[in-house]
Write the structure tokens for this entry.
Amino acid sequence: STSLHPPRISVSLSHLRSLSPQLANQLLHNPVPHLRALQDAVNDIADSESDKFAASDAKLEVGIDGSLGRTHVSPRGLKSDCLRRMVCVEGIVTKCGGVRPKVVKSVHYCPTTGATTTKQYRDSTSLYLGLPRLDRDGTEMPDALLSVTNSVYPTKDKENNPLETEFGMCEFEDSQTVTLQEMPERAPMGQLPRSVDVVVSKDLVDLVKPGDRIQAYGVFRALGSSATNETSGVFRTVVIANNLKVLGSDSAGGGGGPKPHP
């Protein structure tokens, strides 16, 4: 199984805006395809600079940093116009869920035919949902979009031959949900602070603890309901984070100065 986390490359939106205001604006308003292109470009550069990295299966992740303008908000400011956009949410961590391994790819061997098959897994928090699939050359296939998959391991192939799961070759990634609450001094007088769930993965898990004041950069998304008879048009919303910055801590023994994620 894969548990190695390469460094996360921080991209300053302020620096990008000085080079190309149009590209920075597109990254803010339509972040998902631009994040994938940015991550592909970063890994292409790393492959060309290091033969050792090119020979490995490691992939660099990209985190956004810098000024986001009107989408730099508190949990109270996350309205419908922020959906599918890049946001920076500032608040206090009130709850950290457990770190759970999430299957990304499973590998299966068929003793009858000697063939090996793989299956990719995506849930509603996968960042690239709705984007075109990529072929082996990295070219987008517009007629094949990435969608949510089921989480059932295949037990038989197309010819109904039994399959054995090669757990040592499967790929997993760490996943955690952090609850971020509005800072009490910034909440309107007489109203309770509001909160939002932030989904973090890979190297971002276990970076923060309850009491930390943080900035969470990510994509604000509404998650679909799994209920087939759902009649309400209201869905749960989360921030799918790509960068965390710790500003300080209100917990006992917490430090004071800024502690950005490396």
The longest strand covers residues 236-249. Confidence is low (pLDDT under 50) at residues 252-259. Helices lie at 13-19, 21-29, 31-49, 51-55.
